[in-house]
Write a structure and sequence with these properties.
There is one protein chain. By secondary structure, the protein is of the alpha+beta class. Helices cover 17% and strands 28% of the residues. The protein contains 4 helices and 15 strands. The protein has a 7-stranded antiparallel beta sheet, with no helix packed on it. Strands 1, 3, 4, 8, 11 and 15 form a 6-stranded antiparallel beta sheet that branches. Strands 6-7 form a two-stranded antiparallel ribbon. The protein is globular, with a radius of gyration of 25 Å.
Length: 309
């Protein structure tokens, strides 16, 4: 009886092995998961935070090159760590947020201010023919410009095209530790800009810890006036609506201002041609008269409903 049990255990452990002792069934990633193989899992599960897009980081091919890049990055991380220690020792937090005062987060007066931004378009991922760039204009302001093209590549896979985007780098601490922007004391987003009459999308990313939340973003439309005059835009954070992968979600929620990871501006209005958006600053302000958390209805489905046929 004992021999039968031992034979059963050995047979169970080696049931997937081939003639050379390897597991051919485990070489495929989908089979290696083993538990979840349904179509629903493949539809909602995310394999990486970039959803297959290039991360933009410099990757070395040889070990010597990797060591060189690692040492170069180590110097930057140590400087950033020293700066964090100094901020902790100084300990000078903002205790009073007064109405009408704008706290500026990003300004475009110097060339070094562009290092905080990543500019991408559909052509960077072989998904279209749009081109864009972010630079310091002739008058000393940030200039987000380019050419929008909605022509779809004839590859039989892509159905929609035509977007340009500028996005801040992920908020992080020293040694690649993830962090967040805390805008909870503020009520309004404040921008000073000069547009071309187009409509842009303002995106506030709030990526969570789990894969289903990696693409969470709160969006609102930025209407530019066009012409030679500057405009100051105040947008309540309560007006931003919740979306994921470009789809507005049925269940809306207030914008979690305490865990913002990225801020971006996108042009994708399907109007082919050149565009330009001059930006002076991007900031936020506190309005004590504004008490609205979200401007959209919170739908709650009752559980005691009957489905009719």
């Amino acid at each position: 009886m004992q021999r039968v049990k031992m034979f059963t255990v050995v047979l169970f452990r080696n049931r997937w092995k081939g003639s050379f002792g390897v597991y051919p069934a485990l070489t495929d990633w989908t089979r290696r998961r083993g538990v979840h193989t349904s179509a629903t899992t493949f539809e909602f599960h995310e394999y990486d935070k970039r959803s297959g897009y290039d991360t933009g980081f410099e990757i070395a091919d040889t070990r010597t090159e990797r060591i060189r890049l690692g040492l170069k990055q180590l110097k930057k991380e140590i400087k950033l760590w020293k700066k964090e220690i100094q901020e902790v020792l100084i300990s000078d937090p903002i205790l009073d947020y007064r109405a009408g005062e704008v706290d500026v987060f990003w300004r475009f007066y110097e060339q070094s201010s562009l290092d905080h931004w990543i500019v991408t378009s559909d052509s960077d991922h072989a998904e279209g023919f749009s081109k864009c760039d972010l630079k310091i204009g002739h008058q000393g302001y940030g200039l987000f410009h380019g050419n929008l093209c909605s022509r779809v590549p004839k590859d039989g896979r892509i159905q929609n095209s035509g977007y340009c985007n500028m996005l801040t780098k992920r908020v992080s601490k020293s040694f690649q530790r993830d962090s967040f922007l805390d805008w909870s004391p503020y009520t309004h987003l404040n921008l000073r800009l000069r547009g071309d009459g187009r409509s842009y999308l303002i995106n506030i990313h709030v990526s969570g810890q789990f894969d289903i939340m990696w693409n969470d973003v709160f969006t609102f439309v930025l209407y530019t006036r066009g012409g030679p005059y500057w405009q100051t835009t105040r947008i309540p954070f309560s007006k931003f609506f919740f979306a994921s992968k470009g789809r507005i979600q049925d269940k809306q929620a207030p914008l979690p201002l305490y865990r913002i990871t990225n801020f971006g501006i996108t042009v994708s209005d399907k109007a082919d041609g050149p565009f330009q958006l001059e930006i002076d600053y991007i900031g936020a302000e506190f309005d004590p008269t504004h008490h609205e958390e979200t401007a959209y209805e919170m739908y709650e489905i009752q559980q005691n409903y009957i489905i009719g046929t």
